[in-house]
Amino acid sequence: MGGLLDRIQATGDIKKMKEEELEPLCKEMRRFLLQNVCKTGGHLASNLGVVELTVALEYIFNLPEDKIVWDVGHQAYIHKILTGRKKDFSTLRQLDGLSGFPKPKESDADAFAAGHSSTSISAALGIAKARDLQGKNNNVIAVIGDGSMTGGLAYEALNNAGRDKTNFIVILNDNQMSIDNNVGAISKHLNSLRTSNRYRTLKENFKQFRDQVPVLGKATYLVLEKVRDSAKLLFLEGAVFEEFGFKYIGPVDGHNLEEMLEIFRNVKDAQEPILIHVKTTKGKGYLPAENNPGPFHGVGPFDMKTGNGLSKSEHPSWSAVFGKKMVELGEKNPKIVGITAAMCSGTGFEAFQAAFPDRFFDVAIAEQHGTTFAAGLASQGIIPVFAVYSSFLQRAYDQVIHDVCMENLHVVFAIDRAGIVGADGETHQGVFDLSYLTHIPNMTVLSPKNAWELEEMLEYAVNVCEGPVAIRYPRGTAEIDFAEHKQPICYGKAEVIQKGKGIAILAEGHMLQAVKQAAERLTQDGLDAPALVNMRFISPLDEELLLEITKDCNEIFTVEDNLRKGGFGSKVLEFYSDGGYRISVTNLAFPDKFIEQGSQSQLFARYGLDAEGIYRKIKGKIGESYGR
Ligand SMILES: Cc1ncc(C[n+]2csc(CCOP(=O)(O)OP(=O)(O)O)c2C)c(N)n1
Ligand SMILES: CC(=O)[C@@H](O)[C@H](O)COP(=O)(O)O
Ligand SMILES: [Mg+2]
Question: For the chain, first and last CA: distance in Å?
């Protein structure tokens, strides 16, 4: 056990293995993956599905000279293990550990960083063009899943690449799944291709042809091409990729190592754009994941024997609170519709989808389209609620401005995973949305302190607001026991949790919990109780309250789950500065850099945004004036 993988770790090169060792290597790889990911958590099912594909790719191509661009990159664990990172694999997705995504900073075998979907063909095309411009002749390969193939960016790249005739290879890894079931016309088209046996027929024809005209190994591809041209019938139905100018090869069995090796040998160094359609099974080799690929797309620690998750919480997740409330709102108002961009289960939208299938739209991985589609619906009096992760909405920035806000359309954005998300790291931290939304005219931005307030804000956003409105809430479990503070939501009004003297702490959303604990410690230290405010509205700010508070307080602290620049605190600072008010404002927020991976609590602690850190920063700032 561990022998073959350890050999690769020692030699740093899978190419030194004998071909007959590759099957046992795949077996060992699956065991290793399971034994580790059941402890660290991670994107298990996608990785189990690409074991043979990755092993064959890295056996035939020469890394790092040849460049493999993994789309999203959540399925690059095997690649990491094969390229010298087995020894660090137990640190996967942990603080200061191995990233769950490709990262050129981590290894020169990682050609391009990713985390968001549908970028691989564009990036690979750019890398191939750069190769040509520099007179090099390495191979460039994009590996993209069927789910990621629903993203518009992929088609912009195909459109560019096919016309351009740049030689590079696209491997379409089709497991018929996005995170949930894949949807849309492209997915249907892939299904129709999957069931055809054109590649096998082509191979049969080729064999007959070869028996008549002897050919040697490397020329195989050229012969295949000739066979193809002489057997046009096989291609009459045509894959859409042929129309884009790619040579289409497939569908091929992505778990048949021999077939993968043969194809990759044949296409290596080809001089035109080629797309290989590979069929795989998500979760392959681990029954709980094969039977339930959705939940095993991304998992926390689990029991390997049963597949059951280990972490349980008595509190509901923010997404679950959102989902439950949406059903209630949907029952009362038939104008409400739900939109997701391939994140139905992640955003808690499943119950709404089940209850109102005609009023629920999974637009696939298409945040830009989802936003403009919502604008279209809103322009006709429908009330769309688009539930979308904060970092993925970054894609639709122009659509938010141009299609929604400029026309002041009543679109509700339920921004899930706002703030620090944890183990996914830099690519997924939702720490920009306050900065990229709050300066847009007409946009209302709300941040709930707890589960109850999320429900109230949703009701308010759907039934009371008129223009565009965004409610941002974090990943994880929602606080439910703030029984004492249940004031109704009023446009542009903050909620005063506690009046105070000297210091005022203004909290954004769920940060109020840590702020309350920090405030308690300050009072235990003998300071006057600080004023505590739950801002609720980040845009527009409650300017009346900001003025009022200066009567009793001269030290203002803002606390938020966002980067500092352009965030909530900097807006407060701007307000006082523009008005010429002489008051000390300190912003407690994430620093202006890409925030690394780690658990949410580790990251809040590292950046001084947990209760302890907030307490220390306030104490440090005011220490002198209080003589402490
Ligand atoms: C822009 C963007 N939207 C949504 C996601 C979330 N997401 C990550 S993987 C994934 C499904 C991808 O499906 P596919 O490409 O087929 O890969 P598979 O996991 O099936 O191998 C989704 C929706 C993302 N990473 N980026
Ligand atoms: C790779 C990707 O983008 C998603 O799978 C993401 O990791 C999901 O995040 P959650 O676990 O927060 O739903
Ligand atoms: Mg897929």
Answer: 60
Tens-place pLDDT, residues 321-376: 999 999 999 999 999 999 999 999 999 999 999 999 999 999 999 999 999 999 99
Looking at the 3D structure of the chain, how many domains does it have?
3
Note the pTM of the prediction, 2 decimals. 0.94
Mutate to test the pocket of ligand 1, among 72, 194, 277, 349 (most ligand atoms within 8 A of CB): 72
What are the C-alpha distances in Å from 98 to residues 58, 90, 213, 425, 622? 20, 8, 51, 11, 39
| Distance of CA 72 from the midpoint of ligand 1 (Å) | 6
Whether 117 has a binding-site annotation, put simply, is yes
**End residue of a domain, out of 275, 291, 307:** 291
Q: What is the dihedral of CA 437, 438, 444, 450, to 10 degrees?
A: 90
**Same domain for 329 and 271:** no
Check whether residue 502 and residue 565 sit in a common domain. yes
Q: Does 346 belong to an annotated binding site?
A: no
Mapping DSSP to helix (H, G, I), strand (E, B) and coil, where does residue 15 land? helix
8 Å CB contact between 604 and 610: yes
Structure confidence at residue 229 (pLDDT): 45
> How much is the mean pLDDT over the chain?
92
Task: Provide the pLDDT confidence category of residue 313 given band limits of 50, 70 and 90.
Answer: confident
By residue range, what is the domain housing residue 584? 495-622
Sign of CA dihedral 189, 190, 191, 194: positive
Are 76 and 143 part of one and the same domain? yes
**How confident is the model over 217-253, as pLDDT tens digits?**
556 556 555 554 444 334 435 578 998 999 999 899 9
Compute, in angstroms, the gap from residue 529 CA to the centroid of ligand 3.
Answer: 54
Non-local (6+) Cβ contacts of 469 within 8 A are 410, 411, 412, 413, 443, 444, 445, 446, 461
